[in-house]
Amino acid sequence: MLPTPDSHFNHLLVFAREPVLGRVKTRLAADIGPEAALAVYRELLGITAAAVTAAQVPATVWLAEAPALADATQPRPEWPGLPWHVQPATESLGERMTHAFGEAFAAGATRVVIIGTDCPGLTTELLQAAFEALETHEMVIGPADDGGYYLLGLRNLQPALFANKNWSTATVLPDTLADAARLGLSVAQLPVLHDVDSGQDLATWHGAKTM
Length: 211
Description:
This protein is of the alpha/beta class. It has six helices and seven strands, in the order βααββαβαββαβα. 36% of the residues lie in helices and 16% in strands.
């Protein structure tokens, strides 16, 4: 078993969607069809959930939309044992991320990490490494090779990191790092990983699995 940092102060945020046909991986669905895109998303959910479970860190799932006929007191089947909330009704991903970080810090966390569900290379070891990096750095980031990031961790709420970003573009990572430098934050970087958002991304991932 991996050594676990002091989990009392750690909290992991997972931004996810319910695996519903036509509501997930719309860019990928444009290339391979909605049914195939849903199957890919379910696979990515499984990879992410396995890494989160093995990390043994307190975690909260933030869903993009409220599930139909859901009992808010019961865990979602894709995330057994984890509490979940619905992201605020705002078009800005940055505002939703700021809200989730704020909730975690307000509840007493001192090291908070956020991830999505698009990165098949995410592992328990990387999650552990992120929290360990926050022991000596004010921010940790996991760069994605498309110019975004698959993970971001902080020791304090930093709303400026989530403002004025062109989300889902190649400018997100450099703009975030530029903001971190302007704020004087010490930053640790994790290995670059590959997100799956398009048909080409999927081909790259499948090609890597068969090598």
